[in-house]
Amino acid sequence: MIRPLPPELRGLLARGEVLLSVKDAVRELLENALDAGARRVRVELWGGGLERIVVEDDGEGIPLEELPLAVEPFATSKLQDLERIATLGFRGQALYALRQAATLKIRSRPRGQVGGGLLLARGERVELRPAPAPPGTRVEVLGLFAGEGRDPRAEARGVLDLLKRYLLHRPHLSLALFLEGEARLLFPGAGLKEAARQAFGGLLAERLFPLEKGGAFALEGLLSGPQVSRTRPDLLFLAVNGRPVALPEGVLRAVRRAYRELLPEGHYPVGVLNLSLPPGAYRLRLDARKEEVALSKEAEAFLEEALEEAFRGQNLARALPEPRPLPALRPPTPSGLPPLRYLGQFRESYLLAEAEDALYIVDQHAAHERILFEELLARLREEGLKPLPYPVLVELDGEPPEASPLFAFEPFGPGRVRLLSAPPFLHPYPLLLPEIFRESLKGEGRSLRGLLARLACLPAIKAGHPLARAEGQALLDALLACETPWVCPHGRPVLLHLKEEDLIRRFGRRSGARAKEEPHPHPPRETTREGS
């Protein structure tokens, strides 16, 4: 007998279609916030999101009388025409699926509404009452996937990767992630270049060149030259009209054609492609994942042409090995460290290099820390102040000072100031700004350098991170430009060296590889206790 499914089964089916992980729940709530015009979004995870998820935004908000409808199946304000989908969400299933899988709390207020509303939903039970609320929406999800034995750390990693992906496609969004109350991602909407630093790391982001082409079809992005590539397209990301999507085969073929001989067969560049297309130029699959898209032939041709134009403006020639100059002709480095030639990587943590008659072992994390630390010091001296995305309130022990070397500020009552501007490299760390401000009042002394060392440590390459030959050599070259390459900002050694003469002695040889004659090796003389 054919009959309609009961409501509880419909809810379970909706949950299984929309929610496979905490990442899915966060993605749906983030997309709702972006569709509501949010400029700032804050995400909190407790227990990896299995205990509690909070997504708070400053978007349009939901009117009080519409809150109960928002958690009903296939209820949405977004979808008018399947041929002209202009929002990230459109199916009206996300909040309904969440109320079937967990306890859902929604507090919201549109800017024109006096007072807000609080909705509590679990299964078929829905309660609504007036409640004070700031403009925007705050959604809490409690007890998601309860009793399923999921790994909180794996769930949190998935959310962090998701948010970094969205930064590449929404680089002017101010986005924060807190895990167990501790900040893990703080991005002030500083643009695509800074978003790439968060997603790819500082070293790789510096090796990406910009893409920009406007019109009815438009492209913005960052892409690597032939010096950086991967055998999988896992670090090449695509968005269509702000929606992160999977790479269709047509796009991969267009990218490969644009690179032609610049990349070996089977290699792909690293970067992000943000396409803006008119409705007829792409087709979106209407399933719950909303990740698969097909581009028209016209859109693929536009992408290929845009990449070729960008290549014409770049120096993409591969560097040839330079002849080894005489020692007297080598350009001096600030520290006197000789030029290092990359040889390889040991346990994905140490770089092996040679210079003159020595073998060098370089701690890649400590080296990158030193590079970033000296960059911060240089930027402190060279860059001006830029307005913060929003003022930061700082409590002081005494009266506010007249000036600060790092900040523009204004008094804000007794013993308080509001920070208005700061060096651009400090913008991604709003939680540290009050501490840095207080330390900056003491002058650029030991405590301020300690704070800069902490800032340098956060994005530095970690031990266990594989580096390609070009990346390893780039790290060594940057280390050469440092004034103090010998130690990291915390005082740990950056590099150790072993002289060739020590190797000669230990291997029982009489001369090195560059001697005019290579005598036969002889074993080292053994000394016994009887013959000593």
What does this structure look like?
The longest helix is centred in the C-terminal third of the chain and has 19 residues, at 364-382. The protein starts with 6 loop residues before the first helix and ends in a 25-residue tail after the last helix. It is 29% helix and 25% strand. It has helices at 7-18, 22-35, 67-70, 94-101, 152-169, 192-200, 202-205, 249-259, 297-312, 364-382, 433-440, 446-457, 469-480, 500-507, and strands at residues 40-46, 52-57, 103-109, 116-122, 125-131, 136-142, 174-179, 182-188, 208-213, 218-224, 236-240, 243-245, 271-276, 282-284, 293-295, 341-346, 350-355, 358-363, 386-395, 408-411, 416-422, 495-499. It is of the alpha+beta class and 532 residues long. It has an 8-stranded mixed sheet with strand order 5-4-3-6-2-1-7-8, with helices on one face. The chain is built from 14 helices and 22 strands.
Topology:
Layout (H helix, E strand, L loop, with lengths): L6 H12 L3 H14 L4 E7 L5 E6 L9 H4 L23 H8 L1 E7 L6 E7 L2 E7 L4 E7 L9 H18 L4 E6 L2 E7 L3 H9 L1 H4 L2 E6 L4 E7 L11 E5 L2 E3 L3 H11 L11 E6 L5 E3 L8 E3 L1 H16 L28 E6 L3 E6 L2 E6 H19 L3 E10 L12 E4 L4 E7 L10 H8 L5 H12 L11 H12 L14 E5 H8 L25
Parallel strand pairs: 1-7, 11-13
Antiparallel strand pairs: 1-2, 2-6, 3-4, 3-6, 4-5, 7-8, 9-10, 10-13, 11-12, 14-15, 16-17, 17-18, 18-22, 19-21, 20-21
